[in-house]
Amino acid sequence: GLVSGIKAGMNGVIKKALQGYVGFANLPNQVHRKSVKKGFHFTVMIVGESGLGKSTLVNTLFGTTLYPKKDNVEPTDETPKTVEIQSLSAEIEENGVKLRLTVVDTPGFGDFVNNEESWKPILDNIEARFDAYLEQENRVNRRKMVDNRVHACIYFIAPTGHSLKPLDVEFMRRLHTKVNLIPVIAKSDTLTEDEIKQFKQRILDDIKFHNIQIYQAPQYEYDDPETIAENKEIINKIPFAIVGSDREVERDDGKKVRGRKYPWGVIEVDNPDHCDFVKLRQMLIRTHMEELKEYTSDVLYENYRSEKLESMGVQQDPTVFKEVNPLAKMEEERQLHEVKLQKMENEMKSVFQQKVAEKESKLKQTKKKGFSFNK
Ligand code: GDP
User: Fold this and answer.
1) 75 lines ligand 1 (CB under 6 A)
2) How far, in Å, is the centroid of ligand 1 from the Cα of 55?
3) pLDDT, tens only, 224-273
4) For atom 6 of ligand 1, which residue has the closest CA?
5) CATH superfamily membership of 3-300
6) What is the interface pTM, i.e. ipTM, of the complex?
7) Considering only Cβ atoms within 10 Å of each terminal Cβ, which end of the chain, N or C, has fewer?
8) CA 104, 159, 75 angle in degrees (round to 5)?
């Protein structure tokens, strides 16, 4: 699988020149001057059985050969017996804007005789990344926070045309509260247009039936009509029907395009009439990158953290969350956060004692000022 390909670059950041348009340098909905200056950092996880075109898609998505071609790679004794987690970082640059991209790959998923626990190492990895972030938040010096949390998980569904497999359902059920799930139909060029339409509906029905929460891109009324329309179009395509190719093929008219050639014609990766690849890329890189990061941080991570704190015996008063107005609520959450931190730190041993004292005095000062946001 991807193992051999990734090892080369596992420990360092590879600089890559772009071979085509990607779109992150032009970010109508997410122009954050700071991000443009410092560059973006985005972590995406790729999950699906081997052979579904995961590495091809990553290469296609970022217009660069992140994964070396791995034709003729035979399984060896080294073939892992469990799901492995491998992470690869690359810095790509477009029009002077940098994107530090981390791809977390999960070779072995679904490839064993017994795949019952295939989701487990993946869940563990996502939670370990949350833990690493939580640990940094508890430090006094929070200036150099490193965010290695997974911002999106592209889940590859085999193009069976039937419905989700038990493995798909199990994975999504286990992970949906921990990561932004973006399901895609792999190798959709193997299905007809009608089959794709029906397959998509069945997948969505299955997802609904099993109460699975896939990523819901938010809609904002204050966006301009063009953006709203663009977003709607993207969202309506989920689960994206994907075709990947890192090769150029020649169309009947002689033009060379990224695509796959068939006796009856060429399927073009970058043609929205042929597949949803462009829509997936738009969502991931152009329109929803910041949203995916925010949702990861504000909802998925927050929930993880409060559950963790609760399991450590830190009680929360559910009535505190009564909604008054957004500002008050934010302040409430901030205070709650301070309290949580304080309590947690109290449980930690001597190393943290000094820090705890600092936090306490800070909190006391806030209270002295007479702020009360709980009504
Ligand atoms: P991975 O094991 O999931 O990373 O899959 P690869 O990206 O290595 O692809 C496995 C094989 O499927 C390769 O021969 C690819 O050329 C082919 N492939 C990749 N994407 C597509 C696609 O969208 N459609 C078709 N028909 N084949 C694809």
Assistant:
1) no
2) 7
3) 888 888 888 899 999 999 999 988 999 989 999 999 999 888 999 999 99
4) 53
5) P-loop containing nucleotide triphosphate hydrolases (3.40.50.300)
6) 0.98
7) C
8) 55
